[in-house]
Each structure stands twice: as structure tokens, then as C-alpha cells.
Amino acid sequence: MLQIEGIGASHGIAIAKAYRLEEPDLTVQKKEIADIEAEVARFEEAIQKAKTELEQIRDHAKSELGADKAAIFEAHLLVLSDPELLNPVQEKVKTESVNAEYAMRETADMFITMFESMDNEYMRERAADIRDVTKRVIGHLLGVEVPNPSLISEEVIIIAEDLTPSDTAQLNRQYVQAFTTDIGGRTSHSAIMARSMEIPAVVGTKEVMKKIENGAQVIVDGLDGKVIVNPTDEMIAQYEEKKEQYEQQKVEWAKLKNEPTMSKDGHHVELVANIGTPEDVKGVLENGGEGVGLYRTEFLYMGRSELPTEEEQFEAYKTVLEKMEGKPVVVRTLDIGGDKELPYLDLPKEMNPFLGFRAVRLCLDVQDIFRTQLRALLRASTYGNLKIMFPMIATLAEFRQAKAILMEEKEKLVHEGVQVSDDIEVGMMVEIPSSAILADQFAKEVDFFSIGTNDLIQYTMAADRMNERVSYLYQPYNPAILRLVTLVIEAAHKEGKWVGMCGEMAGDSLAIPILLGLGLDEFSMSATSILPARTQIKQLSKEEAASFKEQILAMSTTEEVVEFVKNTFHV
């Protein structure tokens, strides 16, 4: 028996035999070519075959996983149409008289090396996209079949060095019980997809491919981030019981689906969900979400070759508002830049995009994009309970300008005879320390705050959360962060306004007792976290949690806070 530690990327437990998803031999030999035209035609044919496959995978992903996951394959199709990648390959074939697969490998490796060397997580993921796409093309050129996980027809656990987005999208949930990989983290494409598919996953193990043979009995424990190879009968029995307990726990959680979120002493808070597309609403309702706390509208803009029209946006917003049947829907206006780029906008490259031209800064500068989105939102507002928030607000002037543009577009629509709701709350994300410190001034002008802890933490600690060398500074429970959160909540409540949180911290079982005690009104999280969080809050007393507020805020380190919360609230 062998136990391997990794990162629990998707909760659940699975026991099945190993299926090694191994890379095919795509070794490329350099060859001299006499018929250049025929070689270019062969290359173009391989590109076309790869496009056809990717279109099929995209359509499968869209029906199984939703449009936001399928957008990954739209991006792959864009790579296959990118002249910056394809032209150098053809040029190499023509000028050096070399075979297409050699030219493709040389060109792709150059781009992959360039992207992998970047500090930005988003750009590093582009290297994985290029590798995935070019592997498919080279396979066609060599006549080698690239593995097709969709053909698996028995219960297995996938063992792989990594799973590409196209691999993950093809997994048949009926047969694939779980997967484990050597590399990857909680934010990788495969991990996000695993959570959407509710397949247990342990990633970043560094050694499953070396240690696990095809057909070996394997346990994947996505709860504790463990992989057990060739377990004893006793160990299998223990994990069967643990799996049963987890399934029972899910049944207990489901009983609270239609319940309001009440603390033990009768205080109500709202548990809402973060979504990216209209398809995600189904998961919100199935998991008892009391609304949508963050609708990330940038998915409408990504994985395509041009800006979405006002009509396309209107239909998406209208669909979400109608499906939520009057429950609140907080829509974040376009948050592009930083780690999210739109190739068709051709924005200048920046040394530090996270601190650069992004989110509301971009929208206030490129106002035609912003105004189109605001018109679509305003038109959709009569179909439900819409709230609009602006991201990345650093100064009062920015908030005032964004709100003024919103009001201008509202007046124009009313003048055109278009019906617009008069009951739209307008708020802002608090994700920059300056806006948290000045929250008492902002609170006089906003209808609500939503604290974006992912950015607030990295900006406060001056530590890129994607940089492994400083990841130890990504500390949600650091007293500095908790004091900023407290400033925001107290300032809002003084003006009679409400405060939500839509960062990862809101769904964290260790943070929930602290945030409840600090007086947070709304917790927005991934849909699958809602019922566990509701169960936890039901067992907590808000008054008791609040009684520890000053004690926690007076602590000096993250470690002190974590130890106190664990001992006091038994998390």
C-alpha cells in the first residue's frame, strides 16, 4: 500500500482501478521536403481536422458543462486560426524545405517557452492551450491517434501527468469516478471543470504517473487531498464508510435547500452564488442559493473574435434575471485586464497588468463598450431584481463617473420609450485598500458594497496570489485583512447599507464564523458550497461570534487567528 499527498481540487471519494492516460509518442524527425505545396496542403488539412475535432468537443462541453467551460475550446479554435502561430509554420516549411510537423513543433515550442516563463498565471495557462492544440495537429500530421477519454466504458480513476481542458471535457461521468494528476492546482482548468462535473480530484501530486500502474486499485480522497494505491481490504472498508458518510452529509445538506440561512440565535444572512453564465443558474437553484452575489459578465466577452452585441448581452442578463424569479442578482460590469485578456481589443502589453489598465479603468476610457453593456443591463432590469456593481473602484471620482454614465444611458432609454426599472441598487466592489480605508465616504454614495477578497488580499499584502514564491503571504485571516473588512462593514452599516463578500473567503468554513461575527450581510460563493455553509451557520450563534470580534482584531498574526477560530468554533 502507498499513500500519495496532493491538493484536493474537487470534493468526494472514489474507489476504482487506475486508467493511465498516457501521452502518445509524438516524436518529430526533421525531414527535407521536395514538394513544398503538397506539404503546406498537408499542414492545412491537419489544421482542418483538428478544428473539426475541437468543434465537436466544444459542443459536447457546452451541453454537459455549460457555455463558460465550452469557451475554453472557443479559445483553442482561435489559436488554430491565429496567423501569429500558423504563418511562421508555413514560412518555415517554404523557406527551410522542412516537414510540417517539425515546423509546427519548433514554432509551438518557442511560444510555449515564452508563455511559461511569464509570471502571470493567465499567460502561463495560454502555454497549456498552445500545447493542447498543437499536440492535436501534430498527431494528425504523424498519423498518431491522440487519446480519447470519451471512449472509456468501465468505472475507472484517471491517472495523468496533467489533464488538458479537452481531455477533461471528454470525460464520461458515468464511468470516470475521479482523476489525479502530477501537476496542477485548485485554479487550473481541469480542477474547475472537475468541480463543475462533481468528479473527485486530487492534483499536484508530483508522482502518480511514476507510482501507479494501469489497472491498480486506487482510492482518490478529494476531501483530504490523498491518493492511496493498492489499499488493504481494511483501508477500502474505511474509505467505503467515509464515502457513505460524505454522501449522507450531502443528503443532510440538501434538506436545507429551501430554508433561509439563519444562525442558531435567529439572525438571517444571505447565501448567494458566484456565476459566469446563464447556464450556471441551474446549479444556484439546485443548491438553494438565495440569489446571485456575483455575475461575472466577462465570460460573455471571452472565447470569441469580437465584442458581444447589446442584444446578445440583453438576452443573457434577461435569462438570468427571469430564472432567478425575483431573487437578487448582482451583476459586475466588465472586469477585463489583469489576468483576463481579450485578443480582439488589442490592448497594450503591460509590465504589471494587475495594477494596470483594467476593469472600471478600461470601461471609463473605452466608453462605447461600457455604455453598450449598461444599456443591455438597464433594458433587462424589468425582468427581475437587478443590482449593478462596478469593479476595481479606487477613488470616489471613478464611482461617480461610472454611476453618471449609467444614469445618462438610463435617461436615453427612457427618452426612447424603453421601460427601465426604477429600483436598481448601484454598488461597488471593495478590492483595493484605498476604497476600504475610505469606505465611510463611499458608503454615503453607494447602495451596497461587495468585498472582493481575492484581490484585496493580494493588494494589501503586495503579493501576487499566483506566484508560488510569495503564496505564503496570501493570508485571508491576517488581522490586517480582517481590520479592512471590519472598516467596510461598519462604514456601510452606519449609513444603513448592506455588505456582501464575493471572494473565495466567503465560502471558507474557517472564515465564516469570523465574518458572521463581523456582521457581514451576504456571503457569495460557488454554488456547491452553499448548503455546507448554511449547515455551518445554522450551528453558530451570531451574538457569540460577535463577542469575539475585538479579541480577534487585536491579534497579531494569521496563525493566532486560525488557532483561535479552530479551538473556539471547532471548525
Named CATH topology of the largest domain: TIM Barrel
Question: Going across the major beta sheet, what is the strand order?
Answer: 1-8-7-3-4-5-6-2
Shape: globular
Q: Which structural category fits the helices and strands?
A: alpha/beta
Under CATH, the homologous superfamily of the largest domain reads Phosphoenolpyruvate-binding domains
Number of helices: 23
Give the termini distance in whole angstroms. 31 Å
What's the alpha carbon Rg, rounded to whole Å? 25 Å
Counting structural domains, the number is: 3
**Helicity range:** 40-55%
Q: What ranges have pLDDT less than 50 throughout 5 or more consecutive residues? A: none
CATH architecture of the largest domain, by name, is Alpha-Beta Barrel
Q: Quick one: CATH class of the largest domain?
A: Alpha Beta
Average pLDDT, all residues:
90
Total number of β-strand segments?
16
Largest sheet: 8 strands, mixed
Strand content: 5-15%
Question: What would your notes on this structure say?
Answer:
The chain is an alpha/beta fold and 571 residues long. It has 3 domains: 2-23 and 148-232, Glucose Oxidase, domain 1 (3-Layer(bba) Sandwich); 36-142, PtsI, HPr-binding domain (Enzyme I, Chain A, domain 2); 265-569, TIM Barrel, CATH 3.20.20. Helices cover 47% and strands 14% of the residues. It has 23 helices and 16 strands. It has helices at residues 36-65, 67-79, 83-96, 100-116, 121-142, 165-170, 189-197, 208-211, 233-254, 281-286, 310-323, 359-365, 367-380, 396-415, 433-437, 439-442, 453-461, 479-494, 512-518, 530-538, 542-547, 549-553, 558-569; strands spanning 2-5, 7-10, 13-20, 156-160, 176-181, 201-203, 217-221, 226-229, 270-275, 292-296, 328-332, 385-390, 425-430, 448-451, 498-501, 522-525. The strands form 2 sheets. It has an 8-stranded mixed sheet with strand order 1-8-7-3-4-5-6-2. Helix 4 packs antiparallel against helix 5, helix 11 packs parallel to helix 13 (367-380) and helix 12 packs across helix 13. The mean pLDDT is 90.
